[in-house]
Design a protein that fits this description.
single chain; alpha+beta; 5-stranded mixed β-sheet; two-stranded antiparallel ribbon; 26% strand
Length: 141
């Protein structure tokens, strides 16, 4: 056997295939750093995000280990922004040492899983101040 083939054979016990394809198709390396982050789908004017667990150093569009939620930032007919989260799996991955990205931290803070992220407060204050300024400003004709 060649040297590279020997290295591949040694590596096999450390690599496990991910769960069935509905959850993800990426390779799972038990000791590598994981990240819970957004995976963009949809098109230019209609974004849609999946909240996924993947290797921390992989590119955004590489295969994921597991999908743990979804986020639709566009308001629907009832002016609702839809988010679905699988708290059990998120808790599992955070307990396993997964890093959580900032946008996902904001979503988890709004949902009550984590304390509200400070950036969320700042955005709300700025929006409120802009609305108050718009109301008090005289109408120009």
């Amino acid at each position: 056997m060649s040297r590279s083939a020997m290295e591949n054979v040694k590596m096999l016990p450390r690599i496990r295939n991910a769960l069935f394809p509905a959850s993800g198709t990426g390779q799972y390396y038990p000791k590598s750093a994981k990240s819970i982050r957004l995976f963009k789908q949809g098109c230019t004017n209609r974004p849609f995000y999946q909240i996924v667990v993947m290797e921390r150093r992989k590119a955004q569009y590489e295969p994921v280990i597991e999908q743990v939620g979804t986020y639709d930032p566009m308001p629907n007919s009832n002016s609702e922004i839809l988010v679905s989260l699988n708290y059990e799996r998120i808790r599992h991955w955070i307990g396993s040492g997964a890093h959580v990205s900032r946008p996902v931290l904001e979503l988890l803070g709004i949902s009550g899983f984590y304390p509200v992220y400070p950036k969320t407060y700042m955005k709300a204050w700025r929006t409120r101040a802009a609305e108050e300024k718009k109301e008090t400003e005289p109408v120009k004709e």
